[in-house]
């Protein structure tokens, strides 16, 4: 018997930020990244709607891309000072992921990142606060998932914290918040959403509920991502990509992900490659690898009138190229000597990543290493 877990309330559609007025609480801490949500007025709108609901608010800002454990601990200290009963992650994936981790350390201050990175190690949450997620990028689906990815800079490793306890109580999916997103961010986050749909669809615990959402999200990304990059002010397209991201999130938070993410976590943590870019580079060869044990990629190829996994892999590569994202790690500027020096460590960490547990085909060290190398060189590999 399986479960399907999503936030209790999901408000979606252009202008849906206004639903903040329905939130109950007395004090909120809003976690943001840089200045974008200040400049575009989203932070001010958020605080005004909270004020209408009778909720005071304080802001923790400065969350960096690939949020670090140092930033998370600073945020947890801020939470302890402010004592919120509502935690709000506002902005891109980094802000929301960091807010989730701060929330855990706020409720369980004696925890360590290593402990929390063990599968489903998070204890019962909501002892002090509820969680509201408001994304301003369309990719990670973190507003809907029980996942937070935090980086240990000293070790050069990303740690996924995985637990349904981290599933937000409220998610607000408002495409208007994405209007100022730069083209390269739109492209990378959109490809991230695609990778979530694809990996959820072939997960080794996939089911009908999640399959429908995953396939629907994939269809939306292919139909809308190129236009979202080319015409950033087209709000209906922005909303379609926001919905695609959310739908993919609903799918993968229930059936999890695979080795695209296990491997991308390491490349991002080691070399700073944008997560969506890393996923896009890895996807075609991971599709080829997994196709030996599942025929489900043929279902996805059928979206384009095709039949085979290889044809679907080429569609993914074609979409990646069409939105200007690199097709290899070498093309991202990673020095070959540095790549070779880190390759075995990345391979080892990818094998231990929780996402690897849900891949349809169990990989060996040598197979992960071979996929990495092919994706560095930009070549297709035959498994």
Question: What do you see in this structure?
Answer:
With 383 residues, the chain is an alpha/beta fold. It folds into 2 domains: 9-177, Rossmann fold (3-Layer(aba) Sandwich); 181-377, Dehydroquinate synthase-like, alpha domain (Up-down Bundle), CATH 1.20.1090.10. The chain has 14 helices and 8 strands. A hairpin with a 4-residue loop joins β6 and β7 (157-162). The longest helix is centred in the middle third of the chain and has 23 residues, at 208-230. It starts with 8 loop residues before the first strand and ends in a 6-residue tail after the last helix. The mean pLDDT is 95.
CATH level-two architecture of the largest domain: Up-down Bundle
Task: Tell me the series of helices and strands, N- to C-terminal.
Answer: EEHHEHEHHEEEEHHHHHHHHH
Beginning-to-end CA distance, first to last residue = 34 Å
| CATH topology group of the largest domain | Dehydroquinate synthase-like, alpha domain
In total, the number of strands is: 8
- Please tally the helical runs, counting DSSP H or I stretches of 4 or more residues: 14
CATH class membership of the largest domain: Mainly Alpha
Strand arrangement, major sheet = 1-8-5-4-2-3
Largest sheet: 6 strands, parallel
Number of domains: 2
Principal-axis shape equals globular
Strand percentage: 5-15%
Judged by helices, strands and strand pairing, the structural class is alpha/beta
Task: Please mark out the parts with pLDDT under 50 across 5 or more consecutive residues, or reply none.
Answer: none
Binned, the helix content reads 40-55%
- Average residue-wise pLDDT: 95
Radius of gyration: 19 Å
């Amino acid at each position: 018997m399986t479960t399907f877990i999503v936030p209790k309330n999901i408000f979606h559609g252009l202008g849906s930020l206004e639903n903040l007025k329905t939130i109950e609480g007395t004090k909120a801490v809003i976690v943001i990244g840089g200045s974008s949500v200040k400049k575009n007025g989203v932070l001010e709108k958020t605080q005004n709607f909270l004020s209408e609901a009778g909720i005071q608010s304080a802001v923790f800002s400065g969350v960096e891309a690939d949020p670090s454990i140092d930033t998370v601990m600073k945020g947890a200290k801020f939470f302890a000072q402010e004592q919120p009963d509502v935690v709000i992650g506002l902005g891109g994936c980094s802000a929301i992921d960091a807010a989730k981790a701060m929330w855990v350390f706020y409720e369980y201050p004696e925890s360590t990142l290593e402990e929390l990175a063990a599968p489903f190690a998070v204890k019962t949450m909501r002892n002090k606060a509820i969680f509201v997620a408001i994304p301003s990028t369309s990719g990670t689906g973190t507003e809907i998932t029980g996942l937070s990815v935090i980086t240990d800079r000293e070790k050069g490793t990303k740690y996924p914290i995985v637990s349904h306890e981290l599933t937000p109580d409220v998610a607000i999916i408002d495409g208007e918040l994405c209007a100022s997103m730069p083209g390269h961010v739109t492209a990378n986050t959109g490809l991230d959403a695609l990778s979530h749909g694809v990996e959820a669809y072939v997960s080794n615990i996939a089911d009908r509920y999640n399959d429908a959402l995953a396939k629907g999200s994939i269809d939306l990304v292919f139909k809308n991502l190129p236009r979202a990059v080319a015409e950033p002010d087209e709000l209906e397209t922005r909303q379609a990509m926001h919905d695609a991201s959310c739908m993919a999130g609903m799918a993968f938070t229930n059936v999890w992900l695979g080795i695209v993410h296990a491997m991308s976590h390491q490349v991002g943590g080691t070399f700073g490659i944008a997560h969506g870019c890393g996923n896009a580079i890895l996807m075609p060869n991971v599709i080829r690898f997994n196709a030996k044990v599942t025929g489900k990629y043929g279902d996805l190829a059928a979206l384009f009138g095709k039949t085979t996994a290889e044809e679907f892999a080429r569609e993914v590569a074609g979409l990646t190229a069409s939105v200007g994202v690199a097709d290899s790690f070498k093309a991202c500027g990673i020095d070959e000597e540095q790549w070779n020096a880190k390759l075995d460590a990345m391979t080892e960490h990818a094998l231990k990543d929780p996402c690897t547990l849900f891949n349809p085909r169990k990989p060996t060290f040598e197979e992960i290493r071979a996929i990495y190398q092919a994706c560095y060189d930009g070549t297709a590999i035959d498994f």
